[in-house]
Amino acid sequence: MIKIENVSFKYKNSDNKILDNLNFSVNEGEILAIVGQNGSGKSTIGKLISGIIKLKQGNIIIDDLNVKDKKVQDKIGIVFQNPENQIIFNNIYDELSFSLKGLEKAEIENRIENSLKQVGMLEYKNHDLYSLSLGQKQRVMIAEVLANKPKYIILDEPTTMIDSKGKEIIYKIIKNLKKEGYTIICITNVAEEILIADRTLILSNGHIVNEIQKEDLIEKVDILKKFDIKEPIILEILNKLKENKIILEIKDFTVNELVDELKGKIKYEKCN
User: For the whole model, what pTM was predicted?
Assistant: First the structure.
């Protein structure tokens, strides 16, 4: 479990706190979405938890260890919005093996193959990164994190720069990682990513202003709108269906999956 306790933060040359006495927790095995407008402080949270920026006020406890403890860093991996900003080497194998120095060659090979398999990129093991699409590069960056075997993964706006097909692939990867037992924090401005999450925290002016469980999203969609968070298209469709007395359980549907679910429900009702 990750516990954020009384965390405040401000950047140099700024008089305003971007985070102000923040308190929340991340439960093991869940996908937690943190949403908010640009400047709300959501990316700062990810950088503080991962240790990229130094915590000065409050506490972040990760599995009973303080985030300042160097041992904690092995538990956490972070993927940023633009994969090209994370690339060090041109070759994929070289990129993934760089952070695995110190391990035996067989272990390095095993970790690289397994992590690339998890993101559907094993066949590209010896390819050049810069020959790939942006979505493929992001999948390699996720694989690089997975190769280090973290317990917690922070995804900081992971699909913002990627086309719709690439987004769907990464959503499937995230859902599969949850099934494998990873705990995931998804920092996002992409409405559809809220549906992947078990729980959504809304951040505004450095404060958590609301928390919404996945099953309550339809009833609380007005809260998203209140804080200028775009309503996922799937929720719009589910609300319209509900108005016409067609009730579907909220799932992490893609639009195509929702259409298939609706077809199945209509077919079932006709048969009965």
Answer: 0.86
